[in-house]
Amino acid sequence: MSIPRSPADPAAAFFRTLRETPMLSAEEESALIARWRDNGDETARARLLHAHLRLVAKTAGQFKGYGLAAADLIAEGNLGLVRALEGFEPERGLRFSTYAQWWVRAAMFEHVLRFSTPVTFGLSAERKKLFFKLRSLKARLTGPSGSALSADETARVAADLGVRPERVTEMERLLGQAPRSLDAPVTENGVPFGELLADDRPSAEEVLGERQELMYRRELLKQAWGHLSEREQDIVTHRTLRDTPLRLEDLAQRYNISRERVRQIEASALAKLKSLVRAALPAAKTS
């Protein structure tokens, strides 16, 4: 996507583009999407993307409280917008903005999680949930004082969010830290700050167990894969396993069937795989 950029102020160039780009009616959007999907019209693609830059700007505003540059959030949102257009299927009856807002928010979400704290940490489901909800829950419990959560308050937050209390404590500590160099000395004998950080990496036993579990599940999936027909395998491969999935239209032409039929085959094949793996899990674990 080509977006005018100013070396001095990229954000200003972006907002200038917003003012200069008119919004699309439903009919205009539908026509542009058809030109892009059916004919690969790059002009139509660029028009669609530019018309939805307002969505990127609006979403970036929701993340302004995390101390990150607006230009960086906008850049991540633009990438999410491009990914959304690649996977958009108008047959579902949605406007593109409705579909794209999830992709734009998800792109910014990952960026905030990775760069708004001074320490990089794994993006588990618990940590993602805590990152966006802990501030409001803590403010409700402690008020304007912003004091540290007590053990009882930590337990309440953990119960409300369905996470472990130790994760609440960890995230409270991370969100309260000011950016600091890991090489900065913190003691008289010059011990760097980075050497004092707790190592929360999994133990060798945990790594080995996870690796064995992954190999075990891959074997089950391999066995289940053999129960799919060649057409089902081909459709799932090109729709789910590729970095850039093929469009429904491409596979519909390959097999001389409708786009809706391709979608049905894909959904049925994925459901079959899931069912076969689930059915094999108890038997495999007890054998």
Fold and architecture overview:
The protein is mostly helical and 287 residues long. The protein folds into three domains: 10-115, Four Helix Bundle (Hemerythrin (Met), subunit A), CATH 1.20.120; 125-196; 204-280, Arc Repressor Mutant, subunit A (Orthogonal Bundle). 67% of the residues lie in helices and 0% in strands. The protein contains 13 helices and no strands. Helix 4 (53-61) packs across helix 5 and helix 7 packs across helix 9 (165-175).
Which SSEs are present, and which pair or pack?
Layout: H1 10-20, H2 26-39, H3 42-51, H4 53-61, H5 70-87, H6 96-115, H7 125-142, H8 151-161, H9 165-175, H10 204-225, H11 230-241, H12 248-255, H13 259-286
Task: Pick out its properties.
287 residues; Four Helix Bundle (Hemerythrin (Met), subunit A); Arc Repressor Mutant, subunit A; 67% helix; 0% strand; disordered N terminus; disordered C terminus
